[in-house]
Amino acid sequence: MKITVIMVAGIALALALVAGCTGTSIQWLYEGDNGRTVDVPAGTEIIISLPENPTTGYSWEMNGGGLTATGDEYYPDKVPEGTVGSGGTHEWKYKAENAGTYTIEGIYKRAWEETATDDKRWQATIVVK
Fold it and tell me: Where is the Proteinase inhibitor I42 chagasin domain positioned along the sequence (predicted)?
Protein backbone atom coordinates (compact mmCIF):
# COMPACT_ATOMS: atom_id res chain seq x y z
CA MET A 1 0.00 0.00 0.00
CA LYS A 2 2.75 2.41 1.02
CA ILE A 3 4.77 1.61 -2.13
CA THR A 4 1.72 2.24 -4.35
CA VAL A 5 1.16 5.67 -2.79
CA ILE A 6 4.83 6.55 -3.25
CA MET A 7 4.75 5.34 -6.88
CA VAL A 8 1.60 7.36 -7.65
CA ALA A 9 3.11 10.46 -6.03
CA GLY A 10 6.33 9.94 -8.00
CA ILE A 11 4.50 9.56 -11.29
CA ALA A 12 2.40 12.68 -10.58
CA LEU A 13 5.55 14.67 -9.80
CA ALA A 14 7.27 13.44 -12.97
CA LEU A 15 4.27 14.41 -15.09
CA ALA A 16 4.13 17.85 -13.50
CA LEU A 17 7.82 18.40 -14.21
CA VAL A 18 7.48 17.27 -17.83
CA ALA A 19 4.45 19.53 -18.33
CA GLY A 20 6.41 22.45 -16.91
CA CYS A 21 9.29 21.84 -19.33
CA THR A 22 7.23 22.20 -22.50
CA GLY A 23 7.97 25.92 -22.64
CA THR A 24 4.41 26.67 -23.67
CA SER A 25 3.17 29.95 -22.30
CA ILE A 26 -0.13 31.77 -22.61
CA GLN A 27 -0.57 35.48 -23.34
CA TRP A 28 -4.06 36.82 -22.59
CA LEU A 29 -5.22 40.04 -24.25
CA TYR A 30 -8.38 41.94 -23.34
CA GLU A 31 -10.39 44.96 -24.51
CA GLY A 32 -8.05 47.31 -22.62
CA ASP A 33 -5.06 45.92 -24.55
CA ASN A 34 -6.28 47.57 -27.77
CA GLY A 35 -3.27 49.04 -29.58
CA ARG A 36 -0.73 47.18 -27.44
CA THR A 37 2.47 45.55 -28.71
CA VAL A 38 3.44 42.31 -26.98
CA ASP A 39 6.71 40.35 -27.21
CA VAL A 40 6.30 36.57 -26.82
CA PRO A 41 8.52 33.53 -27.31
CA ALA A 42 7.75 31.11 -30.15
CA GLY A 43 5.22 28.51 -29.08
CA THR A 44 3.11 30.93 -27.04
CA GLU A 45 -0.67 30.57 -27.14
CA ILE A 46 -2.35 33.95 -27.62
CA ILE A 47 -5.90 34.26 -26.25
CA ILE A 48 -7.98 37.32 -27.14
CA SER A 49 -10.98 37.83 -24.83
CA LEU A 50 -13.49 40.53 -25.83
CA PRO A 51 -17.05 41.40 -24.82
CA GLU A 52 -19.63 40.58 -27.48
CA ASN A 53 -23.41 40.69 -27.76
CA PRO A 54 -24.57 38.62 -30.74
CA THR A 55 -28.19 38.89 -29.56
CA THR A 56 -28.10 42.43 -31.01
CA GLY A 57 -26.53 41.23 -34.26
CA TYR A 58 -23.11 42.61 -33.35
CA SER A 59 -20.10 40.33 -33.29
CA TRP A 60 -16.36 40.53 -33.79
CA GLU A 61 -14.77 39.65 -37.11
CA MET A 62 -11.19 38.73 -36.17
CA ASN A 63 -8.12 38.38 -38.38
CA GLY A 64 -5.12 36.65 -36.82
CA GLY A 65 -2.65 38.39 -39.11
CA GLY A 66 -0.81 35.19 -40.02
CA LEU A 67 -0.81 33.53 -36.60
CA THR A 68 -2.24 30.00 -36.54
CA ALA A 69 -5.86 30.06 -35.37
CA THR A 70 -6.54 27.17 -32.99
CA GLY A 71 -10.14 27.91 -32.04
CA ASP A 72 -12.70 30.34 -30.77
CA GLU A 73 -15.65 30.15 -28.43
CA TYR A 74 -18.43 32.40 -27.15
CA TYR A 75 -19.34 32.32 -23.45
CA PRO A 76 -22.71 33.95 -22.63
CA ASP A 77 -23.00 35.90 -19.39
CA LYS A 78 -24.72 34.04 -16.58
CA VAL A 79 -28.12 35.74 -16.35
CA PRO A 80 -31.54 34.63 -15.18
CA GLU A 81 -33.31 32.38 -17.69
CA GLY A 82 -35.49 34.34 -20.09
CA THR A 83 -33.33 37.49 -19.96
CA VAL A 84 -33.32 39.10 -23.39
CA GLY A 85 -30.41 40.99 -24.94
CA SER A 86 -27.60 39.88 -22.65
CA GLY A 87 -24.10 39.54 -24.00
CA GLY A 88 -21.05 37.58 -23.10
CA THR A 89 -17.38 37.09 -23.90
CA HIS A 90 -15.83 35.74 -27.09
CA GLU A 91 -12.36 34.17 -26.99
CA TRP A 92 -10.07 33.49 -29.94
CA LYS A 93 -6.97 31.33 -29.65
CA TYR A 94 -3.87 31.65 -31.81
CA LYS A 95 -0.50 29.92 -31.76
CA ALA A 96 2.63 32.05 -32.21
CA GLU A 97 4.77 29.47 -34.00
CA ASN A 98 7.28 31.40 -36.11
CA ALA A 99 9.44 34.44 -35.36
CA GLY A 100 8.12 37.66 -36.82
CA THR A 101 5.69 40.51 -36.26
CA TYR A 102 1.95 39.84 -36.55
CA THR A 103 -1.05 42.13 -36.19
CA ILE A 104 -4.30 40.70 -34.86
CA GLU A 105 -7.23 42.89 -35.86
CA GLY A 106 -10.93 42.84 -35.16
CA ILE A 107 -13.96 44.84 -36.14
CA TYR A 108 -17.21 44.80 -34.16
CA LYS A 109 -20.20 45.09 -36.48
CA ARG A 110 -23.29 43.43 -37.84
CA ALA A 111 -22.30 40.86 -40.46
CA TRP A 112 -24.93 41.99 -42.95
CA GLU A 113 -23.93 45.67 -42.81
CA GLU A 114 -21.15 47.32 -44.76
CA THR A 115 -18.01 48.24 -42.84
CA ALA A 116 -18.14 51.86 -41.66
CA THR A 117 -15.42 54.20 -40.44
CA ASP A 118 -17.10 54.48 -37.02
CA ASP A 119 -17.21 50.69 -36.40
CA LYS A 120 -15.51 49.62 -33.17
CA ARG A 121 -12.07 48.18 -33.84
CA TRP A 122 -9.47 46.26 -31.82
CA GLN A 123 -5.85 45.51 -32.67
CA ALA A 124 -2.67 44.18 -31.08
CA THR A 125 0.80 43.63 -32.50
CA ILE A 126 2.48 40.36 -31.53
CA VAL A 127 6.26 40.14 -31.85
CA VAL A 128 7.32 36.48 -31.78
CA LYS A 129 11.00 35.97 -30.87
Answer: 40-126
Q: Which residues pair with 114 in a beta bridge?
A: none
Q: What is the CATH number of the domain that holds 93?
A: 2.60.40.2020
Cα 11 to Cα 1, 17, 18, distances in angstroms: 15, 10, 11
On whether residue 11 sits in a domain, the answer given is: no
Confidence bin at 50 (pLDDT 50/70/90): very high
Mean pLDDT of 77-81: 88
Q: What confidence category does residue 37 fall into, taking pLDDT thresholds of 50, 70 and 90?
A: very high
What is the pTM assigned to this prediction? Answer: 0.77
Whether 94 is in a domain gets the answer yes
Beta partners for residue 6, in sequence order: none
Quote the domain boundaries for residue 91: 25-128
Asked if the structure places residue 106 within a domain, the reply is yes
Distance CA(27)–CA(125), nearest Å, equals: 12
d(CA 25, CA 45): 6
